[in-house]
Design a protein that fits this description.
The protein has 16 helices and no strands. It starts with 10 loop residues before the first helix and ends with a helix.
């Protein structure tokens, strides 16, 4: 297995070894519910697929619990290892394992007991509520598995084993496709089968990602480190931006579903579900790049190797801009062909397909801006700049989304829903640039102070 030294090896090697597996793994793991939607759309119809989208905000709660601990812990672990404090890094990892398991178990209890109430709260209609509540009920039991899978996968990167997360993701993808076909296509379990397939595939990924952490020779493993829950305060504070991303996504999906139910009924929700699925692949790739540079930036920032930090950030930004352009071109010129993949009967569901294609072309404009904001938020998380990261996440995921969804549909109808996305990303770019200017000013003052001492 290929490994690397984050602060010493050639930066191109370090970047490629960490970022490429991170992108592939993030796309695969984040796309598991989309795979469910694809099989449900083909075998059970678009209403079943729309039911999974209604349940989407609950999935974001699971992701929020995962990422608020994972990204905050990896940032602190990376900076600790970079500064030579291995013991602190071990204690952070050990405590994070216990903390994330305990919190995710609460999510399991919440989802298992109140699944139908949650579905009602998320505006599931009478046509969708049974399937939506079933998906929430089943997937809630896998919350500890999903959370721990991400923590182990992210930890593999910081100990120089980034490919392990990729292997887990590939195995989970294969398992999810096979299980979805068997449980949805063959056994006819519908939404219940989709949730079971996703949960079991995450379990396989967790088992694979955990392998390096059973080896005592690795700097981080299951056997070393002390429990110190005081360490979770900076972890949660720094990882809060990722929780904001997930929480904002949950609120945004809820707002869009609510608006579309009023404007276009279940067909509008189905159209939004398709757009969301297609765009998610591009967004996940960008988040994968952002997550992949977390360990590199945090380690080198802790070691005060700012030139490596700067080059890593610029490389990530360039890649995200390229991905944004590619996604825009694919959606704009071939979106109709992609959309029909999710349809069981394209002829009878032509209204939904046309609605989704028109909306996807408007939504795709946002991809010229999404990459800059995602990398910016990830950069601040990696260096411990929690407040800046939270501001970016809140801006793109909630503040301007609320402004847009409350304003644009009044004047533009359903097109106003689609235009909300590029509006929110455009406004956020301004905020991200201002935060970087403040950061550069602080760094310049810090360097001048160091020279004067």
């Amino acid at each position: 297995m290929q490994s690397c030294r984050l602060g010493e090896d050639n930066l191109i090697k370090v970047f490629s070894i960490n970022v490429i597996p991170a992108v592939i793994a993030m796309v695969i793991n984040g796309a598991q519910p989309i795979i469910d939607g694809l099989f449900l759309g083909k075998f059970a119809g678009l209403n079943a697929m729309a039911s999974v989208n209604i349940a989407g905000p609950f999935m974001q709660i699971i992701y929020a619990v995962s990422f608020i601990t994972c990204t905050g812990a990896i940032s602190l672990i990376g900076r600790s290892l970079g500064s030579g404090n291995d013991e602190k890094a071990r204690s952070v990892f050990r405590t994070a394992c216990v903390f994330i398991t305990a919190i995710s178990l609460l999510v399991t209890i919440f989802g298992g007991v109140f699944s139908r109430n949650i579905a009602k709260l998320l505006k599931a209609t009478e046509l969708l509520i049974d399937d939506s509540s079933m998906y929430i009920f089943v997937i809630s039991f896998f919350a500890p598995v999903i959370s721990n899978m991400y923590l182990m996968g992210f930890t593999d990167r910081v100990i120089g084993k980034p490919n392990q997360y990729l292997y887990g993701a590939i195995a989970s993808l294969a398992a999810n496709v096979i299980l979805d076909y068997l449980l949805i296509g063959v056994c006819g379990l519908g939404v219940k089968g989709g949730a079971l397939a996703t949960g079991l595939s995450y379990f396989i990924a967790l088992a694979i990602c955990s392998i390096p952490l059973f080896k005592r020779k690795n700097v981080l493993n299951y056997f070393k480190g002390k429990l110190n829950f005081k360490l979770m305060l900076p972890v949660v504070a720094n990882g809060s931006s990722e929780a904001v991303v997930c929480g904002s996504a949950a609120i945004a999906v809820f707002l869009f579903n609510s608006a579309l139910i009023k404007i276009a009924g279940e067909s509008g929700v189905a159209a939004f579900t398709i757009i969301n699925y297609i765009s998610t692949f591009g967004t996940l790739a960008m988040f994968g790049i952002s997550d992949g540079i977390n360990a590199i930036i945090s380690y080198n920032y802790g070691a005060n190797k700012m030139n490596r930090v700067r080059k890593t950030f610029l490389s990530a930004l360039t890649l995200n801009l390229i991905i944004g352009l590619i996604v825009f071109l694919i959606v704009y010129f071939a979106g109709d062909k992609l959309i029909t993949i999710f349809s069981k009967d394209p002829e009878s569901e032509k209204q939904v397909i046309n609605m989704a294609f028109h909306g996807a072309r408007i939504y795709a404009i946002a991809f010229f801006m999404i990459g800059f904001n995602i990398v910016g938020s990830g950069f601040f998380t990696a260096i411990g700049g929690a407040l800046s990261s939270v501001l970016i996440a809140l801006s793109r995921g909630l503040i301007w989304i609320v402004v847009g969804i409350m304003t644009f549909p009044v004047f533009l109808g359903i097109d106003g829903v689609w235009w909300t996305f590029p509006f929110a990303e455009g406004c956020t770019i301004v905020i991200t640039i201002l935060l970087f200017l403040l950061f550069l000013t602080r760094e310049k003052k810090r360097k001048n102070l160091q020279k004067s001492i």
